[in-house]
Task: structure prediction
Amino acid sequence: MSPAPRSPATIFAGPLRYVQGPGVLDGIGDEAARFGRHALLVADEAVLAIVGERIAASCERAGVDCATQVFGGEVTRAEIARMASAARTGIPDIVLAAGGGKGIDAGKGVAEALGLPVITVPTAASNDAPTSHIFVIYDEAHRIAEVGRLRHNPVSVVVDSEIIARAPRGLMLAGIGDAFSKAFEVRQCRMAGGNNVHGGLGTRAALALAELSYDILREHAVAALAAVDRGEPDAALEAVIEAAVLHSGLSFENGGLSIAHAMTRGLTGVRGAREAPHGVQVTYGLLVQFELEGRDPAFVEDMRAFYRATGLPQTLAELGLKDPAITDAELDRVAELTEAAVYWPNFERRLSRAQFIAAIRAVEAAGA
Result:
């Protein structure tokens, strides 16, 4: 992603409304009615089977027409253009973007193409995309091609915790991993004087939200995963959903990111690791960031204990890069791609490729 123009100003932005709780999807028609009488739901077939009928019924009760565009599965410029072109005949007032990360990004892409506001409806808490104004676009070979930007953040985020509780455990774990890194990345970006995603300096509020998210995850993540195993929301899961979606999203956009997220670009360049969910890639990258920060062994062991308790990966093998072990050429490729990431400079000191590769080797040795 190309960095936003640098600014000496601090900038903070977020969604207009955030609605979370069991059964809140049934009120989405009222959310849509705030912006007009014609909604467009963008979702893939699997997500439509989960939420399609409820969204249509809620819109009907609120006096909102709801058309549907079926998302094909990959967020390419061609797919966005196809859905936007088909939707223009219906003249919608608002886009409802439902699904996981790619489903929501597809809806954001359509909203951006049509110049419309968007309401996001996550069906898993696997990442913090629902609150964000950015969306990732891929090429036809499924590689990240660019990052698009909405004119502003979603106007509403509707998070039904009953739906989140029934999503696969691995998706919740990815969301925990993605959020867990933010306290450390926002602080590094702040120390480096780096920009946040809006192109301004990070705010103190963003750092506070990142640290709140971390505290919630340390206290409630294990219990929240148990709630997902049961398929029933409880107080722990509600707290972790809020941390993983709302706090994490606001903190990364308004505070900035660092090495852990930069490394996700590098990990997409090697076998095994590229298939891992974004959030677990981030948590492996966070261990590398800790090594580069020179954290003391007691701190790192405390972090690793949390990883063990939740099931987050501590080695490249656990991330998916199994036999043979990572080669020197692959390590160099990871470093090359990571250095090219926009977040790479957001660190307290200038890093060399050799230091970065040495940090990965140290993390691997400790994990073994």
